[in-house]
């Protein structure tokens, strides 16, 4: 019993140390990617930020691409947690979806450089399947709200929730970067995104 307890304690300590080190590496990688862009960033610079050797980074993440994917997953999971909180405060599915849009737009504008890297540089390095995998939990949450709205009759039942969820993420995170111009003021973007997503582009839509 004592030996097993000691082994479990040591294993738990090692896992905690490993997790903390990975978080340090991920934070440094995000800083370096945001400052230099993904292509110009180097593992050497990331390791230097953490104060470790390059080999230690590779022990946790096999490549720079794996680092970026891990960051994308981490960011998406963080947004899922925030969205769950704001959704819980809403009484209607329309309110839930509006609160999700507001949360995602707030994140986008607070992390402009990072979002541009993911939306414009990541596609050159990753396949569609990899990018979808990184945001799977966030897309699932949005699709769930859409399904609830369809069941209540608030949303069009002809729309496929998974496709609509992906369209929302594209609208918020990819479209502004693809435009190439200056970033639209946040409130104007929220209004435009909401109009497009909820009502479409027809003049008759209210």
Describe it for me?
- The termini are far apart.
- The protein contains eleven helices and no strands.
- The chain has helices spanning 2-36, 43-50, 54-60, 64-88, 93-110, 112-121, 128-134, 136-152, 161-173, 175-179, 186-199.
- The protein is globular and about 60 Å long.
- The chain has two domains: 1-62, Orthogonal Bundle (Arc Repressor Mutant, subunit A), CATH 1.10.10; 64-206, Tetracycline Repressor, domain 2.
- It is mainly α and 206 residues long.
- Helices cover 77% and strands 0% of the residues.
| Biggest sheet features | none
Q: So what's the CATH class of the largest domain?
A: Mainly Alpha
Q: Mind telling me the CATH superfamily name of the largest domain? A: Tetracycline Repressor, domain 2
Based on the structure, what is the oligomeric state of the protein chains?
single chain
Helical content, roughly? over 70%
Write down the CATH topology of the largest domain.
Tetracycline Repressor, domain 2
Distance between the termini: 69 Å
Mean pLDDT: 87
Structural class: mainly alpha
| Residue runs with pLDDT of under 50 for 5 or more positions | none
Strand content: under 5%
How many DSSP E strands?
0
CATH architecture classification name of the largest domain: Orthogonal Bundle
Q: Count every helix, treating DSSP H or I runs of 4 or more residues as helices.
A: 11
Element order, helices and strands? Answer: HHHHHHHHHHH
Number of domains: 2
How would the global form be characterised?
A: globular
Radius of gyration: 20 Å
């Amino acid at each position: 019993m004592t030996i097993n307890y000691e082994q479990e304690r040591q294993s738990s300590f090692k896992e905690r140390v490993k997790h903390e080190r990975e978080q340090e590496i991920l934070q440094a990688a995000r800083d370096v990617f945001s400052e230099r862009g993904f292509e110009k960033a180097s593992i050497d610079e990331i390791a230097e930020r953490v104060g470790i050797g390059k080999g230690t980074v590779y022990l946790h993440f096999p490549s720079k691409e794996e680092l970026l994917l891990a960051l994308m997953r981490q960011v998406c999971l963080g947004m899922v947690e925030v969205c769950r909180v704001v959704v819980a405060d809403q009484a209607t599915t329309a309110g839930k979806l509006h609160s999700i849009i507001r949360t995602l737009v707030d994140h986008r504008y607070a992390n402009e450089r990072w979002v541009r890297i993911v939306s414009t540089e990541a596609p050159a390095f990753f396949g569609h399947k990899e990018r979808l995998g990184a945001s799977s939990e966030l897309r699932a949450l949005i699709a769930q709200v859409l399904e609830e709205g369809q069941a209540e009759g608030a949303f069009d039942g002809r729309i496929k929730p998974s496709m609509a969820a992906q369209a929302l993420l594209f609208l918020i995170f990819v479209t502004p970067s693809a435009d190439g111009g200056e970033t639209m003021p946040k409130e104007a973007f929220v209004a435009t995104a909401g109009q497009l997503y909820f009502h479409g582009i027809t003049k008759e839509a209210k």
